[in-house]
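#lab-general

N.A. 3:47 PM
ok so I finally got the sequence cleaned up, no stray characters, all 891 residues accounted for. can someone with queue access submit it? mine expired

B.Y. 3:52 PM
send it over

N.A. 3:53 PM
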Amino acid sequence: MSKDARHSVRIKITNEPWTLRYSREDESLESPIDDVSSQGLAITPPYRENSPFHVGASVEQVYIVSQYRTYGPLNFRIKRITFQLDIERIHVAMMVDDDNSDAIMKQVYQDLYGLLESEPEPSPEWIPIPARGDANEQSRLQRLNFLRERTAQPLSGLEHCYLDPADASTKVENFIGSIEMPVGVAGPLHFHGERVSGPIYAPFATNETSLVASAARGSKAMSMSGGVSTRVMRQSIRLNPLMIFENHKGANYFTRWLLDHKAEMADQIQDLFPEIDRVEIWPHSLGTKVHISLHYTLAESGSLSKVKQATWTFIQRCLDYMLPKESVTIENFVIDSSFQGDTPADRSPLFSGNGIQVIAEAMITEDVAQTILKSNLSEILAAYRHHQTNRNLNDCKHTHLGLNHTLPSLLMATGQSLSSMVDTCIGQFYVEPVDGGLYTSLILPRLDLETVGKGTSFGHQQQCLELIECHGPGKQGRLAEIVAGFSLALEVSGLASLAKSYFSVSRRSFLKNHPVECLRMEHLDKAFFTPILQTLEGTPGVLVESLSFSSEIMNQSYFAKHLIRRKLPKFVGLTKAKLRYRVGQGDTKYYTCVVKSLLSGQDVQLVIESITKNCGELLSSYISRYQEALPYRDCHEREWRINREPPKPLVEFLPKRPACYRQSKNDAYVVIMEDLGNKIGSIIQDSKRIAEKLGVLHGQLRAHAHSDLYMPHIDQINVASILWGSLVVNGKFLFPEWYDDHLFQHQMNLLAKRDTWLPEWDACPKTMIHGRLNQNHMAFHNDRLTLIDWSYSSWNIAQHDLIDFMIHLHHQLDEELLNELSQAHWQALSESSERDLSQDEWQKQLRLALKFYTVFTYPLGLLEDSFQKSSKLIHFHSNLIRILTWQGLMA
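B.Y. 4:20 PM
back already:
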C-alpha cells in the first residue's frame, strides 16, 4: 500500500471486545483491538500475503465510535509490526500522525479510562457449591454444570460416571465424578501360605512404566525357585486414652492403682471381646494427666471398631472404680490422644504401629537368577550389601528398595484407604546366601487393610479383590499375604535390576516403542527462518536467498555432547546459522544467529541414567526413585518460558532473542538468539563488576517468582537424603586421587546434621537465581553482563549464584579477592532490594547458601562432569575448599 492510500476506519468501544472495521477496495475487513493509549492504538488483524499494513505507511480518516459519541477524523502512521504466525495474525502498532489527531486521541483516552476508573470494582462474592448434601445423579450433574459456568472448562471427562452417587456420597462430599487409573496384572506367583496357596494373579493400579513387568519377572523367578511362603505374624492396634484429673495427687493415685490392676483389667477385656487375643496396658503420668497406652493384639476377626468398643469399656471400668473416691476428681477423659505421636514412617521402629504384620519368604536359585533375572547370585548379593551400606549411612531403619512404588499400586487397585499408605509403605527386606541359592524375605509390619466397606465396595476395586478371592469379611489376612508375596517379588526383581541396570533399559525400551517425530536439522530450512527475519524487518516481504550452518565448535553442554555422540536423529544443542536475504527489491542483507534446541527433561534424565549406570546401579536406582528432588524435570519448559516471557529486570541480562519456537508434538523447544561470538566462555577480567551486576539482578528479581522455577523444598530434600549421601560418596569414589578427605567428612557431617541448619536456610529470603553460573553461561562486554542457559534456574538464596561464580573463576582465589567480591555483591543487593540488608545478615545467608551448595549443588554438578576428566575440576574443587575455609566452615 502506498503512503497516500486511505482507509475509512471505525472503532467501536463497548463492554464487548473492541473491534476495528475498515474498508479496502471492495471488501470490508475486521480485526480485534489489543490496546488504546493517549498517542495511538494497537490491532491484531489476520495475516495476509497482500496485507495493506507496512511499517511507515499512513492510515487516514480514522473514526473511533463509542456508545456515547464519535471521535475523528484521525490520521495514524504504522510504527511497528510483529508477525504471530502461530495464530496467523500480525500485531500492528499505530501512532497519531498530526497535532489534531494527537488532541483527539488524548480525549479518547481520557473519556475511555476515566469511565473505566469510575466504575466500582465488584465486591468479592462467595458462591456456595449447589446441592450440597444431596446424593443423586441430578445433584451430581448440577454441581458439574456449576463448575463449568465458573471455570469455563468443558469437564467432559467427568460427565459419565459408573459409580452410584448414593454410594459414593457416603465416602466423599460434593461428589462430581470419578477418575481413571490403568490397572495391569502380574503373575502367576505360587503361594505356600497359611491363608493362600497356589498360583495367584494380582492387580496393580499404576502409571509407572515397567512396574508390572518387574513384578511379573520377580513372580516368575520366585515361582520357578519353589514359590513364596507367607504367614501373618500378628495384627495389632494401639490406642492411647487420656484421663485428666483435678490435681497431680489424683493422677498419681490412679497410675499406681492401674499398674497394680492392669493384668486384671486386661483379662476382663479379653473375656468380653473374643476378637482380642491380648491387650497390654501401660500408664504414663504427666502432671494432672495420665496417658494410657493400650496395645491390642487381634484375632482374625478383629477390627478397629471392636478395639474402640474395648477401649470405651476399659475407660468405663476405670471410672466405675475412681468416681466413688472422694480424694480423686476426674475432670475429663479422651478415648484416643495419640500419645505415642507420629514418627516419619522411614524412621519409626519396625515392630510398632497399627496394622497387620506379615512375612514373605522365598529362595532364588543360581539357574533362575541367570535365566530369568539375567544376573547371578553374587551380583545380586553385592547389590544388596551396597544398598544396606547406603541406608545405614543415612540412618534409615528400614531396608526395602521400592515399597513406596509397589504398595500404593496394589492398595489402590483393591480400594484401600489412601490415608493409610504413608505408614504402610515400610518394611524390612533381607537377603542371605544359603546352600542352594539366596534366601530372601520381606516383613511388612503395618498393613492397614479392608476387604469390606469403604473403597472396596466400588465396582472396579471390588472386582480386583474378587480376582484374588479377598472380598468379604475376615479376608484381611489372605490379602496381607498376597500383598507381601508380590511386594517381595518386586523387591527381588528390583535388586536384580540394580545388579544389571534393567531400570533404565526397560524405560528406554518402552520409549522406543512409542516414537515421537523429533526436530531434525533438515527442519531448520529457509521456511523456518523466514518469519524470524520478517519480525526483525517489520515486513512480510523477505526472501531468504541462502542458508548455511557454521562448522565452528560451540560450547555444548555435557548432556548435548552425550546425545550428539549417540548420533540420534534429533537436533540438540547449539548451532550457528548464517543467512543471506533480501527485503523486497532492496539490497542483500546478512544475518547470523545462534539456534539452541533445548534438551527436554526426559533427554537429560536418560543421560543421567547412562552416567550413573557406570557409577554403580545403587546410585542409578536412587536417581530414578527421587527424580522429583532433582532440577531436571521440565527444564526445557523452564528455560523456554524464561526466554519467551522473562521478568522485566532480567531482559537486559539476556541475549537478544528474535524468536522462541515451540511445537510440543515433536518435542521441539527452540530459542533463536544473537551471536555473542567469542564473548561466551572468555576469561572474565572484571570479576568485581560481575559480582555487582549479579547483586543488582538478584535484588530486582526477588519480586518475580516464576511459576516454572525449580523450587527445592526442605521436606523433599529430607525424603531424598539417601540420594544426596550417595552423590557425595560417589564424588569421593570417582576422584580418590584429589578429592579432599576433610571436605568429604565435612559434607557427610552437614548431611547428618542438616536438621540444625536446613530450616534456617528454608527461612531465608529467596530470589530467582541462575543456578549454574560458570563461564560458559555468561558474557561480559562493554559493561553488559549476558547470561544464557537458564535450565537450572531456581528459587534460592541469592548468594548461591555468587558462590557458583567464584568457584568457577579461572584465576586463583585469595581472601582479599573473596572479600572484595562479597562486599560488591552485598552492597548491590542491599541497594536494589526493597528491604535493608545488613552485612551480618548477608554473611549469615552466605554461609547457609554455602552449606546448601556444598552438599547438594556441588555433588550433583560433579556427577554431571564426572566423565570429562578435566583438570578444571581440580581447580574448582580447590576453590570450594578455599571458600569454605574463608567462611570458617572448614579448618
